[in-house]
Amino acid sequence: MDENHIPLEVKQLREQIQFHNYRYHVMDSPVVSDAEFDALLNKLKKIEAEHPEWITPDSPTQRISASVAEKFTKVTHPAPILSLANSFSADDILAWYNRILKLDPRVAGSKFVVEPKIDGLTVVLHYENGIFIKGATRGDGEVGEDITANLRTIRTLPLRIPVDSAHQIKAPRKLVVRGEAFIHSADFDKLNEKLAQEGEKTYLNPRNTAAGSLRQLDAALTASRPLTLLLYQIVEYEDDAPQPKTQWDLLDYLRKLGFPVTNRAVLCADIPAAIHACEEGGRTRDQIPFEIDGMVIKLNDLGTAAALGVAGKDPRGAMAFKFPAREVTTRLLEIKVNVGRTGVLTPYAVLEPVEIGGVIVRQATLHNFDYISEKDIREGDSVLVKRAGEVIPYVIGPITSLRSGTEKAFIPPATCPVCGTATEHIEGEIAWYCVNASCPAQLIRNLEHFVSRPAMDIIGLGIRIVEQLAEAGFVRDVADLYLLDTEKLMKLEGFADKRVQNLLDAIQESKSRPLARLITALGVKGVGEVSAADLASHYPDLALLAQASVDELQEIDGVGPNTAQGIWDWFHREENIRLIEKLRKAGVRTYNEATTMQEAVTAELQGKTFVITGTLPALSRDEAKDMIQSHGGKVTDSVSAKTDYLVLGENPGSKLEKARKLGVAIVDEEALRKLIKM
């Protein structure tokens, strides 16, 4: 609606309420009593009830939606919402510093900002002309979920910026900011106390509670949870006034706009000071009123940080320093063994359930059999358990002083626990192996990997169907998938005509996947998606790859001596040679669309780096990525000085503007096809 029609009295009343809300919830320094604040809010509610035409989305009365959402819609972020690489020691931080110093000498003169790493849920907030219009989860970094209605209920989130006119600061035309939603420890304890008194189920930890609260379809439920925010990054900015050039100034700018910003950030003159700030954060973590799992070190100079670009999905200009995991004591009930898809036997501990960092842990890794022997870990032991990186539980070792004499020493199995085949221990290796290629455990895991999205991407072929096929004896290796027919599938539980046909169609479609996908699917030790794409670029036919020597393989960037040897070994095993031939006979394409190296690798694409943005007319992102990679190019997520081409679709994000600033060549789908000569 046109705000010019709203009386000045109403506007001033809203500003007063917004200001007092900011003082109470963000500054923790109210200047009026609760009763006075409630009187102002009730006055506004009464006016708006009499004049509903004056209600606007940024009114303080409109925080809680009256309707319940049916589902969460998807939101494409204007720029990638990146994760951070982890460090666990001062040496790790120094190694990171030396790496980025080699890339850009300006790093030597840069200061650093160290901030608490909040253990919450990442959120992305969108503002236009100072009005909050949309909020989303991080999702996969590219696409999140729209949780606008839920975010509006958080009192520390300003519905209009700037909050405090005293700062004499103007809202930019467009602003997208990133932060963390979480619950203070004291508020979490109060919430659980209240739930316990009411006979309701209590929550395990603040982080999961915050995440679950923001994914409620009913915003009224979200509003009942004591959520708060801290903001720390500008994702997108459009305005005539320049945006802050340093992280320190950025935090101050967000603070002046009225956003909640941490008061525990430290500006450090050099890397030793930054390391000290990280270590000090670990020593004082229990004094912080909310859960943190580390500190974040950021280059203060945002221009230098941006120029460093991205490694994988991690910005080079920042690093997370993770605190040591919390340790607990519990009883090890039993040692069991898993069989991986490569035949490796991995022991794990079955534990008496115990809570670690808000998660109930029932199992923990024991790494390998040598580890069990060296630590003298026995069944029945009281053991110390950690969560490595606050994620993967593992047994540190036994508490021998608590032994009763009933504990049992563990002996590595002489036979595979799944198929009964004699196990092997190769000299010089830690791992023990089941060498039976037909072992059901290996088969199921091989099949699961083969049909996964990064590999052959056979839609509809999930783990349960894979298990059914293996148990029925219809599939004894991955090539047997292409020999399935209607008769066999109809014998499986839950299958009808339409489902059978859909699955057969998906299997047929997968035969023409790019070679890089097939190489990924084969599960060669040490070969992931990136290295598979590099191998397919150098060897456009599986037959050529199979003939490559170890020395030749090592000439490829990213392929070290161990990986090269692993690739050579895989392609020279009789069972794998037979498997490839079986795939060929089944109609699986074992070469790039072009049949020779000269044809497969397009000169314009060879070694060039591409970034895709927006929606392309005919190609999905995965299809465009496959097309580029199969012709010698590389695809990354973020635009940098090293980007050669930006592939432009409809509704592009901030990547377009960045590409223009850096002088990156911009092509559409048609131009891309011309480059490839399709």
- Structural class per helix/strand content? alpha+beta
Q: CATH fold name of the largest domain, please?
A: D-amino Acid Aminotransferase, Chain A, domain 1
Distance between the termini: 50 Å
Give the overall shape, derived from the CA principal axes.
globular
Strand content: 15-25%
Number of helical runs? 25
- CA radius of gyration is 29 Å
CATH architectural designation of the largest domain? 2-Layer Sandwich
Low-confidence stretches: 595-600
What count of structural domains?
Answer: 6
Write down the overall mean pLDDT.
Answer: 86
Summarize the structure.
The protein has 678 residues and is α+β, with helices and mostly antiparallel strands. The longest helix has 18 residues, at 8-25.
Which features would summarize this protein structure in a list?
21% strand; globular; 7-stranded antiparallel beta sheet; Helix Hairpins; alpha+beta; 35% helix; 6 domains; 25 helices; OB fold (Dihydrolipoamide Acetyltransferase, E2P); 678 residues; D-amino Acid Aminotransferase, Chain A, domain 1; 5-stranded mixed beta sheet
What report would you give on this structure?
The chain is of the alpha+beta class and 678 residues long. The protein has 6 domains: 3-62, Helix hairpin bin (Helix Hairpins, Orthogonal Bundle); 86-322, DNA ligase/mRNA capping enzyme (D-amino Acid Aminotransferase, Chain A, domain 1), CATH 3.30.470; 327-425, Nucleic acid-binding proteins (OB fold (Dihydrolipoamide Acetyltransferase, E2P)), CATH 2.40.50; 440-510, 5' to 3' exonuclease, C-terminal subdomain (DNA polymerase, domain 1, Orthogonal Bundle); 515-598, 5' to 3' exonuclease, C-terminal subdomain (DNA polymerase, domain 1, Orthogonal Bundle); 602-676, 3-Layer(aba) Sandwich (Rossmann fold), CATH 3.40.50. Helix content is 35%, strand content 21%. The protein has 25 helices and 26 strands. Strands 14, 15, 16, 18, 19, 21 and 22 form a 7-stranded antiparallel sheet that branches. Strands 2-13-10-3-9 form a 5-stranded mixed sheet. Strands 5-4-7-8 form a 4-stranded antiparallel sheet. Helix 1 runs antiparallel to helix 2 (34-50), helix 12 (440-450) packs across helix 13 (463-472) and helix 16 crosses helix 17. The longest helix has 18 residues, at 8-25. The protein is globular. It starts with 7 loop residues before the first helix and ends with a helix. Mean pLDDT is 86; it is low at 595-600.
